[in-house]
Amino acid sequence: MDIDNYSYVSIPLQDGSNPYAIDYDPNASVMFWTDCNLRQIISGSIYGNNQTTLRSFKHYAALSGIAVDLISRILFYTDSQRGNIGVISLDEDLNKTVIINDLNSPQAIVTDPINGTIYWSSLNKIEKSNYDGTSRQDVINTGLSDSVDLTVDINIFEMKIKHALGDSLKVENLAM
């Protein structure tokens, strides 16, 4: 959406594209998205130019979630097919898998840049870990069916994680 005149703007994409997850860097006016058909993570200007493939996957990738930490300039993604979470540096040559063990179809992902923590949804639960994959723990592991999306609100005094659950939204307060 063009915020100056509140109109929708189409971004031209490569033929055969199927964008799935998206995040945005308002400082650089750059969007980041996963493409399920091309099996790529792509960045591009909000005006549709300067599209760059940040990472391509050879086979069987289902790129379900994407989250950008604007402070550290790193991008996290989930691959629900392979059951892992990866990280890409936006400024350096860093591209690695952070978590590969015991992930059951990771989907949505968000960052907490203040604490260097990622949160992600998978089947029936929401988990978190440090950016390097250490200190992994369940945040919510009961009462969930399909967590579709996550958002994090960081305020001075509290942090809330919002997740979709069927036809409702749930808000969980988390200790900082």
UniProtKB/TrEMBL annotation:
Under the heading SUPFAM superfamilies, the entry gives: YWTD domain
Q: Where are the LDL-receptor class B repeats?
A: 116-156
Q: Which SMART domains match?
A: LY (SM00135)
- Name of the protein: Uncharacterized protein
What's the source species for this entry?
Potamilus streckersoni
Source species taxonomy: Eukaryota, Metazoa, Spiralia, Lophotrochozoa, Mollusca
